[in-house]
Design a protein that fits this description.
mainly beta, 4-stranded antiparallel beta sheet, about 50% strand, about 120 residues
């Protein structure tokens, strides 16, 4: 059974950094496109960043480009999201996603597995 477990969330001041981790158990990691989404209170879920299944293509939502970096370690079955220069508007629950399709659909329509989420709070 595939299970995604996120960690690394927390409270940080604006301008600070956090690194989120998502460990995938029960899966052959290299067979999945992996990504991150977030959902702020009262808002719809939003795409953040993703790797294609091949690992060659990376996609970022415009507001995080230059600040966030997604990476993956196939040997550890783990995907990371390094978040720098955090802003209060980055406050949300961050979810890891895995898709058997070639890429992660930005609307999350082709996601096969979701993590439980980790809270990121950025204070001003």
């Amino acid at each position: 059974q595939v299970q995604l477990v996120e960690s690394g969330g927390g409270l940080v001041q604006a301008g600070g950094s956090l690194r989120l981790s998502c460990a995938c158990s029960g899966c052959t990691f290299s067979r999945y496109a992996m990504g991150w989404f977030r959902q702020a209170p009262g808002k719809e879920r939003e795409f953040v960043a993703a790797f294609s299944r091949s690992g060659v293509s990376i996609d970022y939502e415009d507001s995080v480009k230059g600040r966030f970096t997604i990476s993956r370690d196939n040997a550890k079955n783990t995907v990371y999201l390094q978040m720098n220069d955090l802003k209060p508007e980055d406050t949300a629950v961050y979810y890891c996603a895995a898709a058997t399709s070639a890429v992660v659909n930005r609307r999350g329509e082709r996601v096969d597995y979701w993590g439980q989420g980790t809270q990121v709070t950025v204070s001003s």
